[in-house]
Structure formats: C-alpha cells, structure tokens
C-alpha cells in the first residue's frame, strides 16, 4: 500500500480554484480523490476546467451540504467538506462584492468580509429549507458586507472621544453587573467612572448608534409597492411575535404539523433569514401575502402553545 508521501496527487479546478493534494486511501470524504470520485458519480469532470461550470458547482454543493449536515463536527471529513464548500462557492462572494465596487474600501477587505458571510451561510444552511443554497447565502454575504460598511462608517464619523467612552462604559458595565447581578443604571455608571450623567448618556447613545444604526434604514424589499416600512418596525414585530416560542421544545410537533407552505415560510424567515419580499419571490406570492401568512402562523403557534400548557 502506498504511503501518504508516495500516493499520487490529484488536481482539479472548481470555479477557477486549483486544488491539489495526495489522494487518500480511506472510505471517507477527506481528500480530493474522494471528491473527484463523488463528482464523477454526478457526471461532473473536475479534472477539466472547461467542464467545471457554475451549474456543476451548484450540483456538487447540494450534495456536499447534505453530507456536511450528516457529518460529525470536528472530524477530518467535516473540515474537508466545509472547506470544499467554501471554495466551490467563492463565486457568490465575488458576485456580492461586485455590487459594492464603487465603495472606497479595498476590494480585498470586502471579499474577506464576504467570505465570512459565506462561512456563516454554510454553517447555518439546512437542506430541509427546500431552497437553493445561493438564494440562502447571498443575503447573508451581502448582510455581512453591509455590516462591515456600517461599522467602518461609524468608526470614521463618530469622534474618538465617544468611541473611547463607549469602550469605557462597556467595561464598567460588565464590572458593575458582576457586583450587583443586574445591569447598572446611568447614575451608577456615572458615579463609578466619576463622570456626569450627561456624559454617560452620550456614550450609551453612541454605543446604541453603532450596534443598531441599521434599524434606521428601509428594509430591503420593503419599498413602494412591497408593503414599505422601516426595518426596525418589521424586525421588532417579528421578533416580539417569535421570541417567546422559538426555542421551546413544545413547538417542534406544532411546527411539524404546519402545512408545507407555512412551514417553508418559517424556515426561510427565521432559518435562512430571508426578507418577506425574497420569500415571496421564491414562493411566487406577494410580500403582503407572505406577511399575512407569517403573522397568522405565529399567532396560531402561540395559541396552540398556550393550549398545550
């Protein structure tokens, strides 16, 4: 049997990415040779760059995403499958980043942040969502990039004095919480830091602006003709409706009993984190119809949960 050093190497290209490594001799999907064999079963030739088209990458990703969910985290196979999915889908990051080419931030930074979004999408995706991975991943990637712009803009436009005050208040809040076993009041923070209450409130306001400034913008897909409204209003309504039931074990059989359409809407909204407009386009219905179905479903779940209790 050949040793790891003497095994033949296998080379392939996926979306332009060149992958080379020794061919493994295990039965698991832990190396490129295994990947090439899996691709061959799907009629995908990874050895020929001309044949490796985006459709093939999508087809292979679909199989690997299901494989990832069925593989134990922390194993060599999990790491290899996850890494391969990242390489297969870098085109999604480039596509999302290209929409922000006019920004002053370096494109390398945008691509790096977008890749973080891609990794989050891979880790969160569940094949049971019954949606293409690209449909799930692009909003996550774009959201990560927009968050980067928001944070960068905040650091540029907020005076350094307030930036430093925000950090000081955060540390003081943690220290006082440990002593009092509750969140401190502005007056207690002021006394602890020898500041005026006005200065404390100014720092707290800066912190809120940094962490939640995105709530002042119109929600994507919620413009004229799509049931407009502020992102803050939409998020707050849905979070309040779902926060009391999301993690309760009692909900599992109730959600499982939902009609397929309502089950899909819940999965896409709270699992895939798609907007109502994106869900509507996926299902072929209006954003307002999605909103009504979502609100009705959440109301029914709450009522059923109370009945169960």
From TrEMBL:
Gene3D superfamilies recorded:
1.20.120.1810, Winged helix-like DNA-binding domain superfamily/Winged helix DNA-binding domain
Q: Where is the RNA polymerase sigma-70 domain?
A: 109-122
Coiled-coil residues = none
What InterPro entries has UniProt attached to this entry?
Answer: RNA_pol_sigma-70_dom (IPR014284), RNA_pol_sigma-B/F/G (IPR014322), RNA_pol_sigma70 (IPR000943), RNA_pol_sigma70_r2 (IPR007627), RNA_pol_sigma70_r3 (IPR007624), RNA_pol_sigma70_r4 (IPR007630), RNA_pol_sigma_r2 (IPR013325), RNA_pol_sigma_r3/r4-like (IPR013324)
**Domain of life assignment:** Bacteria
Kindly list the biological process annotations in GO that this record carries.
DNA-templated transcription initiation
Q: Which UniProt keywords apply?
A: DNA-binding, Sigma factor, Transcription, Transcription regulation
Q: Does the keyword Mitochondrion apply?
A: no
Instruction: Locate the compositionally biased regions of type Polar residues.
Output: 1-13
One GO term in the molecular function aspect is: sigma factor activity
Record's protein name: SigB/SigF/SigG family RNA polymerase sigma factor
Q: Which organism is it from?
A: Kitasatospora acidiphila
């Amino acid at each position: 049997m050949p040793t790891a050093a003497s095994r033949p190497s296998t080379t392939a290209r996926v979306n332009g990415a060149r992958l080379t490594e020794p061919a493994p001799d295990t039965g698991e999907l832990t190396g490129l040779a295994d990947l090439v064999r899996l691709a061959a079963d799907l009629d995908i030739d990874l050895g020929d760059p001309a044949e490796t088209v985006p459709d093939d990458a999508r087809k292979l990703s679909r199989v690997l995403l299901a494989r990832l969910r069925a593989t134990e985290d922390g194993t060599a196979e999990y790491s290899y499958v996850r890494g391969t999915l990242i390489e297969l889908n870098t085109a999604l990051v480039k596509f999302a980043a290209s929409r922000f080419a006019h920004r002053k931030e370096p494109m390398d930074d945008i691509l790096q942040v977008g890749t973080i979004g891609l990794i989050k999408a891979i880790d969160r995706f569940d094949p049971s969502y019954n949606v293409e991975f690209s449909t799930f991943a692009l909003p996550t990637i774009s959201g990560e990039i927009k968050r980067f712009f928001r944070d960068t803009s905040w650091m540029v436009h907020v005076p350094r004095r307030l930036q430093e005050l925000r950090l000081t208040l955060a540390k003081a809040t943690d220290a006082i919480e440990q002593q009092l076993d509750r969140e401190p009041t502005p007056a207690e923070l002021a006394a602890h830091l020898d500041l005026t209450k006005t200065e404390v409130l100014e720092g707290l306001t800066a912190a809120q602006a940094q962490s939640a400034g995105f709530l002042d913008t119109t929600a994507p897909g919620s413009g004229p003709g799509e049931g407009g409204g502020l992102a803050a209003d939409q998020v707050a309504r849905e979070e309040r409706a779902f926060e009391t039931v999301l993690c309760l074990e009692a909900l599992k059989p109730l959600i499982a009993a939902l009609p397929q359409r309502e089950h899909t809407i819940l999965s896409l909204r709270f699992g895939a984190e798609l907007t109502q407009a994106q869900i509507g386009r996926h299902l072929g219905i209006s954003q307002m119809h999605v909103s009504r179905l979502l609100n009705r479903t959440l109301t029914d779940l709450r009522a059923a949960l109370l009945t169960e209790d």
